[in-house]
Amino acid sequence: MLIADDNPDVIRVLSEFLRTEGYHIRVAINGNQVIRSALASLPDLILLDIQMPVMDGYETCKRLKSIPKTSRVPVIFMSAMSEMFNKEKAFESGGVDYIVKPMDYREVLARVNAHSNIYRYEQQILHEKKLISKQFAVTFEQAAVGIVQIQLDTFEIVKANRKVTAMLSISLDDIINTKFPGLAQEIYVKNIHKSLKALQTMKSESFVMEFCLNDHSQSTNWLKVTASMVYDIMGRPDFILGILEDVSEKKAAELGLLELNRELESRVEHRTKELENEKKRFAETVINSLPGIFYVLDSDGHMKRCNDNFKSSFRFK
Asked: Are residues 153 and 179 both part of a single domain?
């Protein structure tokens, strides 16, 4: 912990008290020393006096928050009751809390413990997130399937692995910032956008879809996407992950099978007609070979069929 105050008595008493509570203490007497000390070794917490020479507490806090390395370190302001203390200015400059002098050391300890624990917890989360991101990056690049990271609000592709560039035969620069539905032919765009919207609004957890690419000059014509929501370490929606597979060969086989089925159906229909005609011809041959006259009537008494002898006898054509 870093304590900054230009009053040596405050530093001495406060340091002794916090050391007995198990804290390691560093001290500074002005704003410049605070910044140098924090940059040299990040503290878990800074107790910062408002009234200091060279640079007051407000300005010191602003500068700490403007530096990426020190921006997350919590700052608790200290101010005497007799001093002009602007709470709004304190919080606007980046402070998380304040303590009024003379101090109630039980209150000091409670506030210090609370903000130190919060900071350490946040640092642990950030560390775990970095480890997960590193592991994800390795898996992302080495995957045997195409993987894209889709931005949650715009549906733009913000990251893609090498497998995607190989499948689409285009450079990474041409893929990044492309809206994912734009990869597909127009007839598929609406359904893809609708499915992504369902993920965005948490109405679904994932979806699977096959679509034809809008650029037929590529070796890959058909893609299968399995898309799902990815959450951050706090359980909040972070981005959409899309797994892409080249299903062009499968689609070609399906289309070939469909064409074959159509051809077989046509052949069956044609052969059925031929058999019907042959059946009629055979029936005519049989009845014409019968001696005498032969005819068949339907239930209404209308003639359905007769042989040639009947036709010649009654001069029917």
From this structure: yes
Q: H helices of 87-222, where?
A: 87-92, 105-142, 162-168, 172-175, 186-200
Q: Alpha-carbon distance 8 to 27, whole Å?
A: 10
Same domain, 8 and 105: yes
Residues 176 and 149: their CA atoms lie apart, in Å, by 10
- Judged by average pLDDT, the poorest of 30-44, 198-212, 213-227 is 213-227
Torsion sign, CA atoms 45, 49, 50, 56: negative
Q: Among 219, 246, 273, which residue terminates a domain?
A: 246
Domain of 204?
Answer: 143-246
Cα-trace Rg, the chain: 42
Asked if 121 and 12 sit in the same domain, the reply is yes
DSSP lists the bridge partners of residue 194 as none
**Mean pLDDT throughout 28-33?**
93
Residues 6 or more apart whose Cβ sits within 8 Å of residue 147: 140, 160, 161, 163, 164, 241, 242, 243, 244
Tally the residues of the chain: 317
pTM of the entire predicted model: 0.51
Exposure of 292 in the CB half-sphere (CA atoms within 13 A) = 2
Q: Is residue 132 part of a domain?
A: no
